[in-house]
Target: Porin family protein
Amino acid sequence: MKKSLFAVALAAAGFAAVPAAAFAQSASSPTAQQGWYVDAEVGYGQINKGPYDSKGDAIGGLKGGYRFAINPAMSVGVEAGYEYLGRIDARYSNASSLRSKLYGPTLGANLRYNFSPDWYGEVRGGAFYAQGQGLTDSTNPNYQRFDRTRYYAGVGVGYNINQHWSVGVNYNYYDGSNRSHGVQLQTNAYTAQVEYRF
Model:
């Protein structure tokens, strides 16, 4: 988890440190987006903890929100969504009764910077209401279900096809764990995204 958080923090720091001169935006031709949007994403999720170490599965999610332009090139968004983070076999078993499962709604914010009219970078984070089930990370594992408010964070880059549509790729980290019961379903999510802006 520390490595994932370090990667997100490093990417965010690098993103924030982009020289303004390299991507100068004219106030007469702003590129920051403002208004309502929805997006969908699909990809691959991987768990690197406990009995599900190094296993992965197909994942997907939907979200929507509103962005506020804060300068000609940058906007801040508030969003809500829902993520399905897959069902994954335990390392030494493919029994369906032992597969992990993780999903839940999200509520968070994002910061988007338009490097040009076509390209953007984004950082995001917020609360993840993790609803999961899986084997405990213990000598004698047992199967547990849980629901708990955790967090998510991520980075992404994308391309604006036109005023309404964009495509992008993202890395997000979802802390889907319940340490009081020993279930470790922290998920690294790699996704492709399509966004529509109203």
